[in-house]
Amino acid sequence: CIVFLLSITITPMPVGTMLLFACGAVMLIIGMGLFSLGADMSVALVTTFYGCIIANLLMSPIAKKLRIRNDEEMQYRMIMMEGIISIQAGDNPKLLREKLLSNLDQKTQAKLRDGAGEGGGDEGGGKKKKEKKSKK
Q1: pLDDT tens readout for residues 76-121
Q2: Phi and psi for 135 in degrees, rounded to 5?
């Protein structure tokens, strides 16, 4: 109806084009009634929208977190392999410790240096032993 009014008032169209448009519209409406084309098209659009939402809000952060964890695990495995190879080569333990710490970021280096002391094989978990005061 709107197309018919526009074709008469604003842009005049030939009668043949108008009849073809009307026949096409009628066939589309009949096809939608017989084959439920409209419902299928709307379901396709809604599921595409849901897919975009799920991909961007749910799956993308999960993939990012997994990528970060994978990179960390690969770094730790490389450090472990370097340590094993250095132990087999007979490197000095203090030199080996510094060499392995150089592969980590600064926060982790500071945490490990403060927590483990400077003695290489620290049995006390990084805590300094209290000295007993002598009685006078």
Answers
A1: 999 999 999 999 999 898 888 888 888 888 888 888 888 765 555 5
A2: -85, 140
Distance from C-alpha of 4 to C-alpha of 21, rounded to nearest angstrom: 9
| Cα–Cα distance, 115 to 119 (Å, whole number) | 11
Cβ pair 95, 87 in contact under 8 A: no
Report how far apart the first and last C-alpha atoms of the chain are (Å, whole number). Answer: 111
Whether 12 has a pLDDT exceeding 70, the answer reads: no
Is 107 buried (19+), middle (13-18) or exposed (0-12) by CB count in 10 A? exposed
Residue 107 half-sphere exposure, CB side, CA atoms within 13 Å?
A: 0
The alpha carbon of residue 76 and the mean position of all alpha carbons in its chain are separated, in whole angstroms, by 21
What angle (nearest 5°) sits at the alpha carbon of residue 110, between those of residues 107 and 113? 150
What pTM, to 2 d.p., does this model score?
0.49
Query: How many angstroms separate the CA atoms of 33 and 31, rounded?
Result: 5
| Residue 128: partners with Cβ closer than 8 Å, 6 or more residues away | 117
